[in-house]
């Protein structure tokens, strides 16, 4: 359970850091940071076999700026290249 909490906290910090890297101006990063902080309630849903999202997660996603969410995901996939690592190539595994 402790490792799950650590993973969820890591995801939250990652989203905030990625947003600051990817979105450019500080004002935009702050706006996205606030939006993405609200999506932390969905952290458990990114783990395989986690089941259906909670209503709290769905409400947070609905109120999140979609550009912020997309920028965070794009930035997350660019992290390996920024660390001089091979790119992440994800297939669709539902």
UniProtKB/TrEMBL annotation:
It comes from the Eukaryota. Residues 32-90 form the Bifunctional inhibitor/plant lipid transfer protein/seed storage helical domain. Gene3D superfamilies: Plant lipid-transfer and hydrophobic proteins. SMART domains: AAI. SUPFAM superfamilies: Bifunctional inhibitor/lipid-transfer protein/seed storage 2S albumin (SSF47699). Residues 1-23 form the signal peptide. The keyword Nucleus does not apply. GO terms for cellular component: exine; trans-Golgi network. Keywords: Signal. This is Bifunctional inhibitor/plant lipid transfer protein/seed storage helical domain-containing protein.
């Amino acid at each position: 359970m402790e490792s799950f909490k650590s993973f969820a906290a890591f995801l939250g910090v990652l989203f905030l850091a990625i947003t600051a890297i990817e979105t450019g101006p500080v004002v935009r990063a702050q706006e996205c940071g606030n939006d993405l902080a609200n999506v932390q309630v969905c952290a458990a849903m990114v783990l395989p076999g986690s089941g259906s999202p909670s209503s709290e997660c769905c409400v947070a996603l609905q109120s999140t700026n979609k550009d912020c969410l997309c920028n965070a995901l794009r930035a997350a996939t660019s992290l390996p290249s920024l660390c001089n690592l091979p790119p992440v190539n994800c297939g669709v595994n539902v």
